[in-house]
Amino acid sequence: PASNLGLEDIIRKALMGNMEE
Amino acid sequence: ELSQDQQALISYVVDAHNKHRIPQDMARKLLQEQFNAEENFLLLTEMATSHVQVLVEFTKNIPGFQSLDHEDQIALLKGSAVEAMFLRSAQVFSKKLPNGHTEVLEDRIRQSGISEEFITPMFNFYKSIGELQMMQEEHALLTAITILSPDRPYVKDQEAVERLQEPMLEVLRKVCKLQHPHEPQHFARLLGRLTELRTLNHHHAEVLESWRMS
């Protein structure tokens, strides 16, 4: 779950374009 | 007067700011559903995650950001995520929301288990932002300026970040003059809010810790 991801993980994923639309 | 380039910069940043928001269904949930403490915690966590994703999408659209060193991009986002989140929330609280909505939101935050000593400065900040009666352009530019702070921890090429932040500051200064011609201190006040934001950011780690404990 997203709540287990750290801030940096979320940023890295979003920067790579893995964001769910 | 604003140059053509400056006008283009404003509309670009404002468009990006308006386009990338927390999904509406999530915001609706926050207002409509009944909640117990655990659900409240999960929903606020989900919102925070969504906020960071939206923030990254906004930031990618700031002219020049993607040309920065990749690790510096991460350092800037990591250093500013909390401040940008407070700015975005402040914008929500300064809007005229339908009757009762502000109270529901405030209740939810107050019942989230965060201790009162952190809640009070947060709502004080929302109030102080509300008093400035900022236009959309000011919100968008101030957020971009916060993100492009060269002095965040682990930023290697501070000069490259400064080169992006400076034109934004100049545009914001002009926008303040144009939008608030009778308040010569307006720009300085906005920058003062950034100092306040730093304090909130500084206490954020403690907030999370106290939240986890409770």
**Runs of chain A with pLDDT <50, length 5+?**
none
Number of helix segments of chain B?
Answer: 9
Termini gap of chain B? 53 Å
Order of helices and strands of chain A: H
| Major sheet of chain A | none
The percent range for helix content of chain A is: 40-55%
Question: Approximately how much beta-strand content do the residues of chain A carry?
Answer: under 5%
Number of helices of chain A: 1
Gyration radius of chain B, to the nearest Å?
Answer: 17 Å
Report the oligomer.
heterodimer
Distance between the termini of chain A: 17 Å
- Uncertain residue segments of chain B: none
In what range is the share of β-strand residues of chain B? under 5%
Going by helix content, strand content and strand pairing, the class of chain A is mainly alpha
Largest sheet of chain B: none
Overall geometric form of chain B: globular
- How many E strands of chain B? 0
How does this structure look, described?
The complex is a heterodimer of chains A (21) and B (214). Chain A has 21 residues and is mainly α. Chain A is 43% helix and 0% strand. Chain A contains one helix and no strands. The N and C termini of chain A lie far apart (17 Å). Chain B has 214 residues and is an all-alpha fold. In chain B, 27% of the residues are buried. The N and C termini of chain B lie far apart (53 Å). Helices cover 76% and strands 0% of the residues of chain B. Chain A binds chain B through residues 2-3, 5, 7-8, 10-12, 14-15, 19, and chain B through 42, 45-46, 49, 52-53, 56-57, 60, 70, 73-74, 77-78, 81.
